[in-house]
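sorry for the late reply, my laptop died twice this morning and i had to redo everyting from scratch. anyway the thing you sent over, i finally got around to it. pasting the sequence first so we're on the same page, its 363 residues, then the predicted structure underneath. double check i copied it right bc i was rushing
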Amino acid sequence: MTTLTRSETRTPVGNSLTAGQLPKWMPWTLLAGALVLSGIVFAIMNSGGDVADFNIAGTVFIGVVLFAIALVILSSVVETRRRAADRLATVLVSIAFTIALLPLISLLFTVVVNGIARFDPMFFSNSMRNVVGEGGGAVHAIYGTLIVTGWATVISVPIGLMTSIYLVEYGRGRVAKAITFFVDVMTGIPSIVAGLFIVAVCALLFGPGLNTGFMGSLALSVLMIPVVVRSSEEMLRLVPNELREAAYALGVPKWLTIVKVVLPTSIAGITTGIMLSISRVIGETAPLLLTAGFTQSLNVNGFDNPMMTLPVFVYDQFQNPGTNIPAALERAWAGALTLIIIVMALNLIARFVAKKFAPKFGR
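ok and here's the structure:
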């Protein structure tokens, strides 16, 4: 009887193609090649040569479809039938995901291409005071957006968070049901109604014709509070009851359990919900037109005189371009790009904060 050595019994190892499996780099290579090929075709079709007219949505969609066809065909030839079927299901999901992303891809491409021309130091250091043609900037609108949104966040987050804590930890009976009902109703309020409400209240208290940045913050807070309440409420409900019961078993009071156990456990989700609420209101135009008003000068006092914000700045540049329409449109696109960058920066900060303060599990 012949005894086989360890080297003789070892299964031969070949490359990925001979083993009936595509190498891991193959799908990414096919995707890159398909996108490049699709981009070349659409670049040739773009006879005008203007980058702004380039069909980025069509390029991405056709590229993903070509990638899907090539990957499925190659998988059916090289791999097993089961793996090929898995590849087919994966590429179908990828196509559906790409279709959902096409509006976002097209929007970002359009804003970047049209707004990058005015991304210069003048745009971030000058206001529109005494500017009717070329030049000028949006520093007054950037300051206004940060101030108005900051005040709205300071107002909305404590109210929304404490309301959600009440609903989850203390709320029972008709009062909790009434609060939940009114929060759901507020979630669907049109933004201009919030602006009209704040204008009406301030007109009764201080007289008509008043426009300040703080009024804009109050209008945005009406829109932010229900979003903060609903998102924070869901995150607090996800905290396991075992954590609360363990704290109660150690004799920890209920309020301290909420502060030391419940809130730290759900801080990541709460932070994400707060950022969603900020993103929800930072681009609002209608309520700020009625409350914060217009100004072409820098104003950092939220309680006196009108205050320009980036959404209103973009609207004003499109509606009142002055003597140089192309220059005004460039400023409008640059303002829109600045607003997108601010939202992206706030989301990155929120992710960092959530990761930093989230509880560490494990030993």
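The first helix runs from residue 6 to 9.
thats about all i looked at so far, will dig more tmrw
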